[in-house]
Amino acid sequence: MHVQGGSAIRRPLIVLAVCAVAAMGYLARDFLIPTAGAVVLALILTPVANGLERLRLPPTAAAGASVVLLALGLAALLAISIPALTNWLDQGPFLTYTMERKLEGLRKSLAVVQEVSKQVEQATAAATPAPETAKPPATVVVRDGSLLTDLASTTPIVLLQIGYAGVLAFMLLAHRNTSRRQIMRIPAAFNTRVRLARVMRDINERVGHYLFSLALIYTGVAAVATVALAVLGFPNAIVWGALMGIASFVPFIGPTVMIVVVAGVALLTFDDWMRIIAVPAVLLVIHFTESQFITPLFVSRRCALNTVAVFASIALLGWMWGPIGAVVAVPLLILLSTIAAHLPSLRWLEMLLSDDRPVSAKLARKPSLASATRPPARPAPQTQTQRQPRRRFAAAK
């Protein structure tokens, strides 16, 4: 077989490498999920840590303060949402009865359709009698364990993963400048160091600023949704508004699921159909305004990704890693696109992940790094032997 430039064996090796990485990502998900979450948290909190360092705080103190502020915010959200969730669990039978009562009219209208379909099935069965077969014996499935047993077995693992992610995010923030300098010392060639410096700069700008901008935008979404739900008299408006902001981190899927869930809660809570329809309608208007006007105005210049690639990555990582994978899918995709923009061998991947224009065309317009240009070499001082011909020429004149 004629092999030209190793291309015949390189492509199968690339396919095998991608399959091996996907298999390793699925098998090691208990370790990779908190690791990816810590990296995303560190990138989100990098602007906060930089702002605290401008206030003359040491890097370690700035990183610790950033992580503590985030932990306090999540703890406050849990403290508010846990009583509401407990109340919903206690009222489970009453909520089920309320749902059945409100859907009674819809069930009556569907009963007519079921009756017609049953008559059609009976007529078809009478026309073509089926052979008599012995009915299989009924089987009883006994499930070992209960909900409390599952919670007791999974809670320590979840707490360990949360603690590991918090500590890793703190270490990444505290030692980010030192790690950057150490990475810059790895390549020996000057051109490789320049390319590596550009990659780290663009990762910080695209991923870090992208996530921080989204965090600010979705915080505003949570605040507006909370106010709107409180005005409509929705119970626990702050909890549902915060969940709407968190769900917005998952494009396409998160806001849709949250609007459907809130619509179901409104159906259980209110008796007036105008308010039942107004609650999901208000959230839909908020999401439409954010996704079509606000986010493209502040984020689209830094996040130039293909919509199909974004949806596929969310579906894949959501299947492999669960909800955390769906949240970190877009940041990891931007990270991969930024690295591919600086490597000529990965230009095909950049073209697949980018939108109408590749990312490298946008990055090429940025000013070069200060270290990318060598200082001009000074002329070497003339020696005594180089000066002698001039003196002899002057003496001859």
Structural summary, described in words:
This protein has 397 residues and is an all-alpha fold. The chain has a domain of 112 residues. 77% of the residues lie in helices and 0% in strands. The longest helix is centred in the middle third of the chain and has 42 residues. About 2% of the residues have low confidence.
Give a short synopsis of this structure.
This protein is mostly helical and 397 residues long.
List keywords for this structure.
single chain, 397 residues, mainly alpha, 16 helices, 0% strand, globular
Helices and strands, with pairings:
Elements: H1 7-27, H2 29-54, H3 59-90, H4 92-102, H5 104-127, H6 147-174, H7 176-184, H8 190-231, H9 237-247, H10 254-269, H11 273-298, H12 307-321, H13 323-341, H14 347-353, H15 359-363, H16 384-396
Q: Strand content of the residues, in percent?
A: under 5%
- Rg of Cα set: 31 Å
Distance from N terminus to C terminus (CA atoms, Å) equals 77 Å
Content-based structural category: mainly alpha
Q: Fraction of residues in helices?
A: over 70%
Question: Main beta sheet, described?
Answer: none
By DSSP, the count of extended strands is 0
Shape: globular
**Number of helices in the DSSP assignment:** 16
How confident overall, as mean pLDDT? 77
Topology as a string of helices (H) and strands (E):
HHHHHHHHHHHHHHHH
What are the segments in which pLDDT stays under 50 over at least 5 consecutive residues?
Answer: 140-145
